[in-house]
Amino acid sequence: MAFARGALLVFGMVVVMLVAAAAEGGGTVCFDRVFSFGDSLTDTGNFLLSVPEDFPDPARNLPYGQTFFGRPSGRYSDGRNLLDFFGNLPTFSVSLLFAYVLLCILPSLSGSAEAFGLPFVPPYLGGGDFRYGANFAVGGATALNGSFFRERGVEPTWTPHCLDEQLQWFKKLLPSIAPSETERSDLMSKSLFLMGEVGGNDYNHLIVRGKSLDELHEIVPNVVGAISSAIKDLINVGAKKLVVPGNFPIGCVPLYLAIFPSQKEGYYDEQTGCINWLNEFTEYHNKMIQEELEELRKLHPDVTIIYADYYGASLNIFRAPLKFGFTVPLNSCCGSDAPHNCSLSVMCGNPGSVVCPDPSKYISWDGLHFTEATYKVVIQGVLGGYATPPLSETCKGGEYRVSQLHQCTDNPTNTVTYDALSSFI
Ligand SMILES: *[C@@H]1O[C@H](CO)[C@@H](O)[C@H](O)[C@H]1NC(C)=O
Ligand SMILES: *[C@@H]1O[C@H](CO)[C@@H](O)[C@H](O)[C@H]1NC(C)=O
């Protein structure tokens, strides 16, 4: 055992050096815990927890979760999603790394990793201990509330738990995890608030109902306004570090490629094969959200508000999929034999659906959501520069106390640890 510990300390030093080297490249991120809001791109179980047990959701069954978890995990992916990679980013600190080696690696080798492991950001509706972060994202959630859509003749049927309600959940939780004013301001200032992606479903509701591009443009200020008011609310209760992602290039989504085909010249982007009008619309939303964030930064110079460019990070993949190991960019891995392996009638997980043999070769998992492999590359991209300002801005403000070891995992193989570190290098 003494020998094993010695070897591990050497290993620990190597890890420190690797991360230190990566930190020079600007990959440093500092936060104690994550509170996350959003939709199915970051849901880690809330949707399934929000519906009756017999509610027929495909994510309740395999092949959802087949990668990494080996079972459905409430995520809309073959494996982990954006939040899992985000929530497990290493906080850079030498003392943390030693603590990490002591608390995570040693016990895991002696078979008790779970005792120390804080696995993933836990879904709020699952109950439990949220002192180390909570995920409020619900699959299907919109930024705007139900009445907004109903007034426009659209019934938002996917879930009623919109961004505003997720925020109410957080405010209700806060006094229980930080009872005193001092504890609250400490917790708020050292937490990272991941605000989405959210808003994509607001547009999806209109797009799948065949609403016009003009109608889509009309609601952009409302969607951006809802996200902005959630950010202001959090800043009012003391948030100091926020990451606000833009939307993804929805013109590259197999479901939309399948339901909006066209022979028109210039309809598809020559390089990627994605639908131009849908991607241009996303660019418009992303431009508006960035303008709003600029205003918020002026109003709150003491708050770090980072725009995470999910659009750029994923378009980068669609432009050169092979570079990232993706051989099938525009079809879904799990779906039907329809064009793009995607149709509304036979979605992934429905009877008659088929799964590709190797999801890591596909960008899209089920026609709407990405594979774990893609989510990982997107987060690596955000760490690598698809963020304004860079994520290292979260570290300004001096002395940093580490109260959570994000690297710990309940997975006996420590795969999360490996991924979190490899995403730095
Ligand atoms: C829904 O949002 C609108 C603003 O878009 C707000 O005026 C209204 O009070 C909200 N309704 C509910 C029930 O929260
Ligand atoms: C994709 O669709 C083609 C037919 O268009 C079919 O031959 C193939 O099996 C499908 N693959 C998957 C993984 O669904």
Give your account of this protein's structure:
The chain is an alpha/beta fold and 425 residues long. Helix content is 42%, strand content 9%. It contains 15 helices and ten strands. It has helices at residues 2-24, 46-50, 82-87, 94-109, 113-116, 146-150, 163-177, 181-190, 200-208, 213-236, 254-259, 276-299, 310-319, 372-383, 415-422, and strands at 33-37, 133-135, 191-195, 241-245, 304-308, 328-332, 334-335, 354-355, 362-364, 387-388. The strands form three sheets. A six-stranded mixed β-sheet has the order 2-1-3-4-5-10. Strands 6-9 form a two-stranded parallel ribbon. It is globular and about 60 Å long. One 2-acetamido-2-deoxy-beta-D-glucopyranose is lined by residues 335, 337, 341, 354, 356. Residues 335, 337, 341, 354, 356 line the site of one 2-acetamido-2-deoxy-beta-D-glucopyranose. Residues 1-23 form the signal peptide.
> By helix and strand content, what is the structural category?
alpha/beta
Helix content: 40-55%
Order of helices and strands: HEHHHHEHHHEHHEHHEHEEEEHEH
Q: What's the alpha carbon Rg, rounded to whole Å?
A: 21 Å
Major β-sheet strand ordering:
2-1-3-4-5-10
Secondary structure tally: strands: 10
